[in-house]
């Protein structure tokens, strides 16, 4: 953290000018006071000099004055006199001096700490200089009223204190011309970016050299510091300024020092779910977002969760776009929406906000940052930040155009940067696609380099979250075919998983779904991933299958391709944490024509009853819906198996009493099915006896 209003107040602290009546002072407290003064003074004196220009003179000046004062504190702390001989007025002044020294120490820590943003410190050079100046004036005032003659000090100590007092008295506000010139240059660069003028490369290099940022790692640290600093701001103007600075540093990092080296396959695989899921979120790259906090449509952290008619929760923006596009079904369950009213989920929003605070992630839309610089809310209100990000996207796409045919490793670094940039913000995704990235990424899906293939398919996944980009990917020559090849035989599980997630994202749009399910090997690839992949891959495969099941014409192909058996197997797996999605797939297939196939699948009713008995609320609802469809359309064997299940009526009554409104309706239908079956059985059993009586 660099500068905060709390540490650099606009008004100076009031200094006592007279001592209160004499009183006894606790000698133990006096000893601790003197030791604290000596300790803080030594820490300030030993502060390492700043390794970059801002505040070098001011921080050095105040450190030298404190070093001279440490002689006074050392003399007092090591004196053999009784502490009771120190006058109360002196103790009060010494206590105030300790507060000023602690303030100085905090300022020095802020301007020289590892988490300090150098550019933000430059922008605030006048305010910070004023804070140092006021601290010196406060120190001088306290030394003026400190009763030095009553402390019985040596002449050499008195001379040193007098020297410091005189220096503080003559202190004037000093704003270093070098700092001010750098600040002006940064301000001019930001103004040029606002006017869409691309910064000169040599000018950028000169600026960054003088600021002390000379490599890609330094730029990443600076961006991280700016993202941290933005959370402390209350002023929209300051927030916009930091957004612009982050955009400038992000662009300069790519232009001056090239794309960052991607992480190893193992580390990227560990963060695969995060790569798909954040953001709006601005979470750090390796942070795992709880699945309940992610929007099922955008895979991003929900900022404004709302509940639709089926009881599912989505982010308001994503579900709003879904409904505006003409959809009348729930994206996650495939059920028809009885109405389009959106109910705020305030309880979930409160939990998400609490989690964001604990994880130090900005939650309000006005202060969200991300891997590609500062974005939505912040960047949206700052033209310089938006233009800097657009320039970054254009530069990276041009680099990819140059590097892709020649050097896979160099291309991999660029694609990794594009992947990170596309991970956050609709604007970023639009600018990358508009610059022509899609047509360059598609051929890389067939790369022999596992890292390049994985980064390319993940970049396409992140781009596909934007509605406009879905058609760009669908219309790219060989785009869907290449994604399917990665799905079937990608070099890494992460790549195959993200290929499935890409198909899921694309199939959320009606026009794309109609084409995707007709693509040869799509269903086979998804079913194979569902059967053999790790849990995270199975979740993405289920999500894609569920979307395809929304197309009635695709159900036959899904059933014929083994989707029923694979989904039932996933639902029966007690160690699988996405049973809800698996049962939702079965329910969707049963509703749209696959009921007979499900009824004919061995163990189908048993698996669904098991979920009905022990599943989550939503899983039980989907299991009930699937059983109703199977028993009504799958004829008597399924109904007989259901009715013969021990304890089935109690399960149904439990669902009637505690399920969602839709679950209760399905439970009532199941109860009716069981009663009709029981009546039919009695009728069949009674019929022979009736015939014998007549004869």
Automatic annotation (TrEMBL):
Pfam families: ARM_PUB, PUB10_N, U-box. Residues 288-362 form the U-box domain. GO terms for molecular function: ubiquitin protein ligase activity. The keyword Signal does not apply. This is RING-type E3 ubiquitin transferase. It comes from Aristolochia fimbriata (White veined hardy Dutchman's pipe vine). The keyword Acyltransferase does not apply. InterPro entries: ARM-like, ARM-type_fold, ARM_PUB, Armadillo, PUB12-19-like_N, RING-Ubox_PUB, Ubox_domain, Znf_RING/FYVE/PHD. GO terms for biological process: protein ubiquitination. ARM repeats lie at residues 436-478. Residues 1-21, 262-283 are annotated as: Disordered. It comes from the Eukaryota. Pathway: Protein modification; protein ubiquitination. Keywords: Repeat, Transferase, Ubl conjugation pathway. Its EC number is 2.3.2.27. SUPFAM superfamilies: ARM repeat, RING/U-box. It catalyses: S-ubiquitinyl-[E2 ubiquitin-conjugating enzyme]-L-cysteine + [acceptor protein]-L-lysine = [E2 ubiquitin-conjugating enzyme]-L-cysteine + N(6)-ubiquitinyl-[acceptor protein]-L-lysine.
